Amino acid sequence: MSESPLEPDTGAPEESVAARAAAIRQEIAAEREKQNSPTKNLALFLITGIVFVAVMGSDLDLGAVLLFLGVLLFHELGHALAMVAFGYRNVSMFFIPFLGALMTGRKDDAPAWQEALVSLAGPLPGLLVGIALLPVALLRQEGLLAELSGYLIILNGFNLLPFLPLDGGHFAAAVLFQRHRHLETAFAYLGAVGLVAIALLLGWWGIGIFAVFAFVAANFQRKVREVAHRLGEEHGARVADPDDAMLVTMDEAVERELSVEAPATRARVVEQIRQAARRRPPEALATALLFVAYLAPLPLLIVAGIVGIFLGAAAQPAP
Q1: Which residues of the chain have pLDDT under 70?
Q2: How far is CA 86 from CA 34, 91, 277, in A?
Q3: 199: nearest Cα among 211, 208, 191, 190
Q4: For residue 9, what pLDDT is reported?
Q5: The predicted structure's pLDDT at residue 7
Q6: Distance between CA atoms of 109 and 271, rounded to whole angstroms?
Q7: All residues at 6 or more sequence positions from 15 whose CB lies less than 8 Å from its CB, including other chains
Q8: Conformational region of residue 22, where left means phi above 0, alpha means psi within -120 to 50, and beta covers everything else
Q9: Mapped to the 3 state alphabet, what secondary structure does 228-258 carry?
Q10: Kindly report the CA angle at 288 between 284 and 291, in degrees rounded to 5?
């Protein structure tokens, strides 16, 4: 029987295969056990927050920047609470001027439904609060409350758009598009194109930067998915639970086909392929319930908009 092109060199001593596999496992374990220092997390949060206020404050009113900062904090707090509830580790947050903020965390073999809920936990609460505040702000004619409502609706509504790397894109990928590699790849590229369209339409160059990163990430992940698919076709369930020989095979495939030379980076990609082989999409009922949660604010937003129009018109002084 001919030897598979992706199998490790069978002429190599078993000790060398075992040693390389042990080194790969050590890199993966080191990545899993890596703990962010609370002091460094706090320093990153404070420094990026100060830079965010300074940069944004040079173009906008400081009060508006601080209000927007509070909306961002509320949004990211939702992600953080969901991550902590589901056992994510290394949860941390930092700000990105002209773009917003990012909450990061890790959980090995996280179920797709948890990933979906983490994605929704940021934008949904803020959007619902913004919708609830809109008619109150217009009825009382309170400018600050109306501004707060507007920020909550715009920021969180935008993040629910189904474009990677927005929250709505991560939700749709976890629930729907991860079921097939071609669908996932097409969705990633279409998301980047959508961000470019939004950037051109609204003149938001910050979104254009987001789109560039989305294109780069989509291209690399496409290559990773092709390697993972080929390994799965040739080796089946061994990819999800690799022995030493399979682990070395995966590492060699990543090194050769993705041109990844750094051992630590290769180990991360190998682990990503292993986790992808184990991931299962939500069942039909769970998928339906998740989409109900995702789409729930839409009718409320329409109703709030109609109420807002009537209240705004009623508040206008008579000619």
Answers
A1: 1-15, 35-36, 304-305, 307-319
A2: 18, 11, 21
A3: 208
A4: 47
A5: 46
A6: 10
A7: none
A8: alpha
A9: HHHHHHHHHHHHCCCCHHHHHHHHHHHHHHC
A10: 140
Give the CA distances from residue 32 to residues 174, 249, 258, in Å, rounded to whole numbers and listed in that order.
Answer: 22, 21, 22
CA–CA separation, 30 and 8 (whole Å): 24
Sign of CA dihedral 272, 275, 281, 287: negative
Q: Which pLDDT tens digit goes with each residue over 199-229? A: 888 777 777 887 888 888 888 888 888 888 8
pTM over 0.70: yes
Peptide bond into 125 cis (omega under 30): no
Cα–Cα distance for residue pair 113/122, rounded to 1 Å: 15
Question: What span, in angstroms and rounded, lies between the C-alpha atoms of 232 and 29?
Answer: 23
How many C-alpha atoms does 49 have within 13 Å on its Cβ side?
Answer: 13
CB 105 within 8 A of CB 81: no
Structure tokens at 227: 């390697």
| H-state helical runs in 58-180 | 62-85, 112-121, 123-140, 143-159, 167-175
Q: CA 252, CA 9: separation in Å to the nearest integer?
A: 10
**Phi (first) and psi of residue 105, to 5 degrees:** -170, 165
Q: What local confidence, expressed as pLDDT, does residue 312 receive?
A: 56
Neighbours of 42 (CB within 10 A): 11
Q: Would you give the end-to-end CA distance of the chain in angstroms?
A: 91
Task: Outline where 34-122 has alpha helix (H).
Answer: 38-57, 62-85, 112-121
What's residue 4's pLDDT? 44
Q: Tell me what pLDDT residue 6 has.
A: 46
